[in-house]
Each structure stands twice: as structure tokens, then as C-alpha cells.
Amino acid sequence: MTALSAIVYIVDDDKELRTSLAWLLETVSVQAECFAGAREFLAAYDSKRPACLVLDVRMPETGGFQLQEILNKQGATLPIIFVSAHGDIPMSVKALQNGAIDFIEKPYNPQQMLEKIQGALKQAVQLHDSAEQRQKIRAKLDKLTTREQEILCRVLDGKPSKIIADELHISVKTVDVHRTKIREKLGVVSTATLVREVMEVWASSMTEKPG
Question: Can you give the pTM of this predicted structure?
């Protein structure tokens, strides 16, 4: 998958800006969808598709910061580039602290904006691919037997096979057989890779919980 298969969402109540930016992106074969407000965007937003968001700060009804908060609560990972004709340092700091990747003042340089968006799309594709990989691992974890899950938890705690065997009252050989099956089911070749990938999934599960 490349950045060309991703999409740019443009949310701004300035119709002229939306149209001109979409046209600019079209010249480099980047697909864009334009929305005049947050409600319209949320109704069309596809979280399963890699995307970045060019978002105006001040809009009627729901402002850019409010939309960013909504997306954060939903666990969305799309990179956000804020734009504003009335930007200041506190505003840009707030945007970046809440997860935006950039804050650009209007009127902006078209080439600069294009470069920012292309960088955001690359990041979006990476985030999308990582999320897909974690989802695949989650599905594989669900297929582990109860005994395999017990052993996996102890492997993640750094316990050697002998300690695991003593705790579960089984032989070391049985533990090693289960460890091999776990690696095979999860599609990893080493214990180090197993630990890293499972810990990443568990860490992302914690951060994705709405709060």
C-alpha cells in the first residue's frame, strides 16, 4: 500500500479553500474529500482507510479542536494538520499537544502544504498497516488454548520454561512444546519477536480504550 491509496479529508467552512486545496492534490494524483463542517465529515469518515485530515480551527457549530477531541475519544489515528487564519502560539501548542502533527497559518504556501500532506499520508499508511498487523495478532491470540494463554502470560513475564513448568505442575518438555505451538500460531520465529508483538498489541489496547 502506498500514500496514493490513502485519502485526504479537508474540513473547512471556506469553500474556496476547500476547492483550491482539493485541486492542488488532484494535480499530484492524491484523492481528497471536502466537507464544510464536522458533522458532515464524521458521517463520511472511514476509519478503516488510511487518511490524513486538514482541519480548520474556527468553524460554525463544531470547531476544529472539538472535532479533534471527538476523534481522539474514538481512538482515531489519522494525522491532523490544522489550518487557521487567526493562529497564535497557544493555539498551535494546544493542537500539537492533543496529537496534531502540524499547525499552518492561512494563507499558506501551496507547495509547503503539499509537502506537509504528502508526509502526513505516509504516516497515515504506516499507522494503518501497524493497526492491521495488531488486529491480525489479536485474532491469533484469541485462538490460543487456555493452557497456551497461561504459558504465554508467564513467557511475557520473562519466566524460563522450568519455572513455568513448576508453577503449572507440568513437565519442562510440555512447556517447550506449548511455546513452540504459540510461536507457530502467532507466526513469529523467536521468543523476542513474540514478546515484542504481543506487548505492542496489549499497549495499543490500553490506549485505544475510550476515556
Answer: 0.74
**Which tens digits make up the pLDDT trace of 96-112?**
999 999 999 999 999 99
Residue pLDDT, tens place only, 77-100:
899 999 998 878 888 999 999 999
Helix-strand-coil split of the chain, %, nearest 5? 60, 10, 30
Q: Are 79 and 68 in contact (CB under 8 A)?
A: no
The 10 Å CB-count burial string (b at 16+, else e) for 115-151 is: ebbbbbbbbbbebbeebeebeebeebbeebeeebebb
d(CA 155, CA 145): 15
Q: What is the DSSP letter of 74?
A: T
User: Which distant-in-sequence residues (6+ apart) come within 8 Å of 122 by Cβ?
Assistant: 3
